[in-house]
Design goal:
The chain is an alpha+beta fold. The longest helix has 15 residues.
């Protein structure tokens, strides 16, 4: 029996290693780089328990350890629920703190992403926000994959920009087109993957929030990613992300 499980959320792909069943991986960074390359996935998830809470650690395919991953935590929750580690609702410890999650009746997974912070306006079409990891949001009428890839690659480590934003390790870059008051379409160039991914949960959350804050969109907002739709809603001041998670 394999000690790894492969899951995807809206096409964002992960290997999950269950340390509760198979023991602790001491050098997670090296393991993540090797297994992500072998299995051709975007990231690697590790599941354990800390202070009676399920704990998620997430590494990108280049070995970067992230504080949070929206699609990753849904995949983590799907696996943990199916293994009987919790019943419908759980608190999952991440590098960005505790996230409350719930398995919905239709099989989708709801994640309380918390309160967004560090909002900055660069100009009328460029903004940044922290939604578990830092994101830059560009509004554009045109979403061209190759152009987004080029701009994203040149932007994510731009020293002067990262200095202004306060994120020296770089930012993921979202290209957003408004479709209606309740729908946006995005492309996300992700740090650590170093490419446009099929979907980004924290990027969808950031893009929806900025669209609400500065462009007049109204919650719930459907975010159309290349790999599928993610819905972002607002509960008080907290952003709620709802999407799928499946094995492959």
């Amino acid at each position: 029996m394999s000690n790894i499980t492969k899951l995807q959320g809206c096409g964002n792909t992960f290997v999950l290693f269950d340390e509760l069943n198979y023991g602790i991986i001491q050098d997670k960074r090296t393991y993540a780089i090797e297994i992500a390359k072998k299995e051709n996935v975007d990231g690697v998830l590790f599941i354990n328990i800390s202070n009676d809470n399920l704990e998620m650690e997430i590494f990108d395919r280049d070995g970067t350890e992230e504080t949070m991953c929206g699609n990753g935590i849904r995949c983590f929750a799907r696996y943990a629920y199916d293994k009987g580690y919790f019943n419908k609702k759980a608190k999952i410890l991440t590098g960005d703190g505790i996230k409350n999650i719930e398995i919905l009746d239709d099989g989708l997974i709801s994640v309380d992403m918390g309160i967004p912070h560090n909002f900055k306006e660069l100009d009328e079409n460029q903004y940044s926000i922290f939604t578990g990891i830092p994101h830059l949001v560009y509004f554009s009428q045109e979403l061209d994959l190759e152009k987004a890839r080029e701009v994203g690659r040149n932007t994510r480590y731009n020293p002067s920009l990262c200095d202004v934003l306060g994120y020296p390790n770089g930012v993921s870059v979202n290209f957003v087109r408004l479709e209606s008051q309740n729908k946006i379409k995005i492309l996300t160039y992700e740090v650590g993957v170093e490419d446009i991914t099929q979907a980004c949960g924290t990027g969808s959350t950031a893009s929806a929030y900025i669209s609400y804050k500065v462009k007049g969109c109204k919650f719930p907002i459907k975010v159309e990613n290349r790999g599928g739709d993610i819905t972002i809603n607002l509960n008080g001041n907290n952003l709620i992300m709802i999407g799928n998670a499946e094995y492959f």
